[in-house]
Design a protein that fits this description.
Number of strands of chain A: 2
Order of helices and strands of chain A: HHHEEHHHHHHHH
Number of domains of chain A: 2
Mean pLDDT of chain A: 93
Strand content of chain A: under 5%
Oligomer: homodimer
CATH topology of the largest domain in chain A: Four Helix Bundle (Hemerythrin (Met), subunit A)
Number of helices of chain A: 11
Low-confidence stretches of chain A: none
Largest interface: A-B, 58 and 59 residues
Shape of chain A: elongated
CATH superfamily of the largest domain in chain A: GntR ligand-binding domain-like
Structural class of chain A: mainly alpha
CATH class of the largest domain in chain A: Mainly Alpha
Amino acid sequence: MKIDPENKADLSAQIAEAIRKEIMAGRLIVDERLPSEAELADHFAVSRPTVREALKRLAAQSLIRTARGAFGGAFVNRLNYPDAYGQHITTSTLLLSMNAISFDVACEARYALERACTPLAAERRTPDTLATMRAEIHRQGQPGLSDESFCASDVTFHRALVDSANNPVLSYQLAGAVEAMQPLMNMITFTARSRGAILGFHTRIADALERHEAEAAQAALSELEAYTLTLGRDVMAARARPRG
Amino acid sequence: MKIDPENKADLSAQIAEAIRKEIMAGRLIVDERLPSEAELADHFAVSRPTVREALKRLAAQSLIRTARGAFGGAFVNRLNYPDAYGQHITTSTLLLSMNAISFDVACEARYALERACTPLAAERRTPDTLATMRAEIHRQGQPGLSDESFCASDVTFHRALVDSANNPVLSYQLAGAVEAMQPLMNMITFTARSRGAILGFHTRIADALERHEAEAAQAALSELEAYTLTLGRDVMAARARPRG
DNA sequence: GCATTTAAATTGTCAGACATTTAAATGTAA
DNA sequence: TTACATTTAAATGTCTGACAATTTAAATGC
């Protein structure tokens, strides 16, 4: 593990990158203890605060965890699903919110990915995931529901659909796509009419999954996509001419 | 922006989380300058090194960037595609390598996602993406190619397939799935026979896309998935009984 | 043999200083 | 007036040294 004296980047960034590479390459394995901060400072010929900044960078990416006390220190962290979900969702959400990505593009990506889960979901859906979907459908029919709550329920419904595929890697990948759309969806005002339409699609999807009918579920998803697209386009058009 | 004096977590983690929430909620917008380190230290009633550790955490997630000099400081960073790709790939790769995820599960997720891109790719593929795929197919047929190079070429081929869909959000989401599989694929020894088979599937996929035939491309992908699965299972079986 | 205390190691935090970088402000000469 | 060099101020980057808090192992006492 070395750093380049010619490199003009921050020392802490270089050190973090050097350790990150060791972890990615498997030369530092899960639960292995890194040298103490003082030893790392010696090794890289920098001060302890610089080492600490490097370690905090790695901790922010869940690559290491630290423990105080004797026999404490920094340990290579086993990246678990909740942490991975969180990181993916943060990254995806910011990517969408900061880059003027059109509603159309985000929508297309999300529904394409969801359709990818549908054949597996139709095959493997459980009473549990079906119950979640039914419960959210019921919630979405409540009259007093705020737009935010409706959106949150929508996310829960679609995550249950994804989880039905019973593939944790797929669930992880989809979490970013589904959650990152929520800020965009939150801009939509869901009228009673549009809620009714969405409810209808959700019911068709749940029904199709329950009957193990993948193609029917995919068809309903595609129609939901088209409908969501019109809702989103209306919002974007209204925002484009605010005095309209 | 406040931190909880009752909270026993690291101060730098709390401060980073407080600022992260401001960014995620849009209360700190792109290119906005954060207060200087000294001002933040005052605001949170902590020392400057603690503030710096917090800022390094955020920098590690590409949420901020820093600039030295007068009128420098920490600025909310516009998360760009390359940074988002990198973070997603790091997270996905570690998730797969550290959690004893079976080859089957990873493989299933990856090909399900790729099939999701295929209809769009068949519609929108360009001479450019087709040329990339043909070039990689040609490379994969070279006799002297190492297993690593073959895998790298495989990744390039599949990324070209994904990029053919011409949806950057989809490309970003798929990058994690495709790249994270590479360490698993690298464990496979590609015999001349298996290379020939894979080459055949790749050719069928490229041909189908060229002719805008989505279903033929999906069918070839599914067969490639089944074939990859058998290769992976052989490796896993051999690893399970090392004295075999 | 068990409970308690002590010691040691390590991270967390702080204070203060200096180095380096950057751009604006200032000064100077053509 | 303009162009260029210099100064200055503000900010991050880095270092030193210290102390606090935490945790475990070992030592001690009963």
